[in-house]
Amino acid sequence: MMKKQNTRDLIYITCSDLKSKCFYSYGIEFNEFMSCVHNRPENLILLKHNFDNAQWNPHSKFDFVTSEEICELIEDNVYGYGDFCWVDFDHEEDLNKMTKLQIAELLFFGHLAKPLHEIPMRRFAYYAHDDGWFNKHYVSRLKDYEVLLSRVITMKLRKLTRRTFDEMPNDIAKLLLESTLEGLFIDLSKSTKSNTDIKIPITAIGHYTDMDKVYDFKNEIIDYKAWLVYSKKTWKFFRED
Questions:
Q1: How far apart are CA 175 and CA 128, in angstroms?
Q2: What pLDDT score does 196 carry?
Q3: Who's near 185: CB < 8 A, 6+ residues apart?
Q4: How far is CA 12 from CA 105, 153, 189, 205, 211, in A?
Q5: Residues 207-218, buried b or exposed e (16+ Cβ, 10 A)?
Q6: Average pLDDT of 85-96?
Q7: pTM for this predicted structure
Q8: Start-to-end C-alpha separation, the chain
Q9: Are the beta carbons of 202 and 227 closer than 8 angstroms?
């Protein structure tokens, strides 16, 4: 397996329509997802993976993990898997009740990273390539992704700056979620810091699924029109007219 990557300092998230509850992203790794999501899922059907300690369900023929293995999976080198795909579920016995159609839906999602009709999942359907380079997430509730995004930003800032940050208020978290409709681009490497403040540039770049192109914007964008600012334990959002 390849060596784990350092914390990515770029976050890009795009959603063409919030009603679809489907988000493409760069920069959110599996361990960050599981650390930041509200009420972390503990039961996962693993559709694409290289995890050595998964269980196997004879009815569905799917690998899965429960709370007994989930921490080990989070600590594993998911980047080395290449493709990594899963959906969450409620109870282990649910796997024995899966219909042929549900099994087919999951196989389709694991192969093409999109639903045939409707993905059988509790809250999340997760597809990634090279852990954090390309992610495609389906969610049952938009609020889950809103919380995830705001917490991922603060978690990365803690790692990159070694400072502490309070959680973002709901109004700013909601604004960030809505900004994904324009292709939200947050370059943490260009943050400016003082003893009391940190100013994080953000912009909109449109909708992309080619994350090589998205990464190139790090060097191409020099003029930012909006900022997240953390000052005196308060989050604020500023935009130039």
A1: 25
A2: 85
A3: 10, 11, 12, 202, 203, 204, 205, 214, 217, 221
A4: 28, 11, 13, 9, 9
A5: ebeebeebeebe
A6: 96
A7: 0.94
A8: 48
A9: yes
Token output for 41: 């899922």
Q: What is the pLDDT of residues 114-173, one digit of tens each?
A: 999 999 999 999 999 999 999 999 999 999 999 999 999 999 999 999 999 999 999 999
Which contiguous run of DSSP H or E holds residue 174?
helix 170-179
**Residue 3: pLDDT over 60:** no
Look up residue 128 and give its two tokens: 């990634």
Contact 120, 81 (CB under 8 A): no
Question: Environment class of residue 20 by beta-carbon count within 10 Å: exposed (0-12), middle (13-18) or buried (19+)?
Answer: exposed
Mean per-residue pLDDT for 37-56? 97
